[in-house]
Amino acid sequence: MAGLTTDPLLERQAQSEQVVPSVQAVERQCFICRSSLPKGEMLRLVVDESGVIWTDLLHKAGGRGFYLCMESKCLKSLNDKRLGVLKKNFAVVLPQAVSLLTRIEEALLMQIRQRLLQLKAEACMGRDAVMHQMWKRGHLLILLADDAGEALRRQVVDAVQKRQESGQCASICHTLPTEMMANIFERDTLSVIGLKVSKQTEKLKKHCVWYGCMKKNQELR
Ligand SMILES: [Zn+2]
């Protein structure tokens, strides 16, 4: 907001507000790799009364939680032995690593679906609409289906690259299946959509990337 005003008093106020660390800036450690990251960039997990671990994607569940960085290497090594270290601080029941991975995946899918439904009205759908939108001003997030045809994939990737080279901002995320996108947007088939970048799409993108990591991890298992 500070960039929008030229009033020195307002600007000073905005600057002093920035000194207070936001939720995004507070760092937490990944319980597997121990690396520290802003907690907004990590997956928060909580333990219920029966010792079952659940995801808290929106960071809203009460009680103490712990964090996972969602990097492939940590997802790959998420097993019951790793979960065992949590016993120091939480009454977790084991084994539950396999079911936990399923719960994380399901929670991500549900959240992605919900957010896409919220953004549905402002999305441009299908190749022609997305290509057209791509050359207008504004930052764009492109969701390309993971099973999109090669020709469409190449066309979209090329267009995004050209847009980036000309200093425009666009990014692609390709982790969702065509069927899911078509289902949400009530189309027979839908392999590409474009969304104007906002706080909402940033979260959506993060969840799509995480979902992609989970799927890749599942294939490797
Ligand atoms: Zn980690």
- Parts with pLDDT < 50 across at least 5 consecutive residues: 1-6, 12-20
Q: Report the C-alpha radius of gyration, rounded.
A: 20 Å
Number of helices: 8
The CATH topology of the largest domain: 60s Ribosomal Protein L30, Chain: A
What is the CATH C-level name of the largest domain? Alpha Beta
Mean pLDDT: 88
Find the count of extended strands (DSSP E, 2+ residues): 9
Which strand-content bin applies to the residues? 15-25%
Fraction of residues in H or I helices = 40-55%
End-to-end gap: 46 Å
Bound molecules: zinc ion
Main sheet strand line-up: 6-9-7-8
CATH superfamily of the largest domain: Ribosomal protein L30/S12
Which sheet architecture does the biggest sheet show?
A: 4 strands, mixed
CATH A-level architecture of the largest domain: 2-Layer Sandwich
Sketch the topology as an H/E string, one letter per element: HEEEEEHHHEHEHEHEH
Based on the structure, what is the oligomeric state of the protein chains?
Answer: single chain
Total domains, how many?
Answer: 2
- Structural class call reads alpha+beta
Walk me through what this model shows.
- The protein is α+β, with helices and mostly antiparallel strands and 221 residues long.
- The chain has two domains: 10-95, Hypothetical Cytosolic Protein, Chain: A, CATH 3.30.1230.10; 118-220, Ribosomal protein L30/S12 (60s Ribosomal Protein L30, Chain: A).
- Helices cover 44% and strands 15% of the residues.
- It has helices at 8-19, 72-76, 80-84, 97-119, 127-134, 150-165, 178-184, 199-220, and strands spanning 27-29, 36-38, 43-47, 53-55, 65-68, 124-125, 140-144, 170-173, 192-196.
- Helix 4 packs antiparallel against helix 8.
- The model is unreliable at 1-6 and 12-20 (pLDDT under 50).
- The protein binds zinc ion.
- Zinc ion binds at residues 30, 32-33, 35, 69, 71, 74.
